[in-house]
Amino acid sequence: MLKYLLKAPDVAWAAASPAPAKAENLKIKYLGTAGFILSDTNRTLVLDPFISRPSFWQTFTQPLSSDPALVKHYIPYTDEVLIGHAHYDHILDAAEVCKQTGARLIGSQASVMYGRSAGLPEQQMQVTKGREVIHCGAWQVIGLPSIHGKALFGRVPLAGDMTTPPPYPPKFHQLRHGLVLNWWIDTGQLRVVHIDSADFIEQELQGRQADIVCLCAIGRKYRPNYVKDVVRILKPKYIIPCHWDTMVTPIDAPPQLLPGVNIPEFIEEIKACGVMPLFMPILGELYFDQSKSI
Asked: Domain for residue 14, yes or no?
């Protein structure tokens, strides 16, 4: 494992796109950490935007601010912003994205509290307690209640909820995760499940099929049978590893692998389950055929 500590990802891990780069196909762009942009000709959704990526020193000593110029450059447009949980590395840029694009912020009470602290108007935010169908144009999304993995020496980091708006800009420890949600996204042709933390609730995923799963790479270290259970329940064709980088390098700089994350083993484990792994570099793009369901 030490071979991979604080190393850059191998370019050979990057997957080829399953479909051509056509507007009618589903495009998935990876933003690093657990962040993605999903788009086609009908809709654009952003998941867990964290592109400002303060340095290690800034993260632990300073209030954390979104970088408006980076947001404008990397997320020029979206219809909705979906938040899996309200830790800083999942929500920091959400309010700035919504301010610039007019997008609707959708997430837990904690996520909306962060939006309020940043000055978003109430009509631009939607709280979900999970399990409800939310219409996003021709797409539908459901936040499936989940749990945060015990990713810090066997404990859940920054546990708890936010029932009042936190300071803005916040320090990293002031953003508690709140209700954790696994997003199930139906484009009408394809179904995507986003698991942004190192655990999940099996009963909440039961009965949900997914063509594509964006899966937190940290989870296989903390939950037994993590990949096998995801494949057994959701039956995906593709798994995209996410949340594998240290989060403190600039978005346009070479990333570093998070200690404890072994991507080659993760890829082989996915293959052993009969699923195609699709490793994406930060800012990488993949396309998926929407002319017929996978």
From this structure: no
Cα–Cα separations (whole angstroms), residue 271 to 34, 70, 209, 220: 21, 35, 19, 14
pLDDT in tens, 169-186: 999 999 999 999 999 999
Positive or negative torsion for Cα 26, 185, 109, 195: negative
**Cβ-Cβ contacts under 8 Å for 204 (sequence gap 6 or more):** 130, 131, 144, 145, 146, 182
Cα–Cα distance, 253 to 171 (Å, whole number)? 24
pTM attached to this predicted model: 0.95
CATH code of the domain covering residue 100:
3.60.15.10
Tokens standing for 247? 């989060």
Q: What is the largest CA-CA distance in the chain?
A: 50
Its domain, for residue 80, covers 25-288
155 has pLDDT over 70: no
For residue range 64-84, what is the model confidence (pLDDT) as tens digits?
Answer: 999 999 999 999 999 999 999
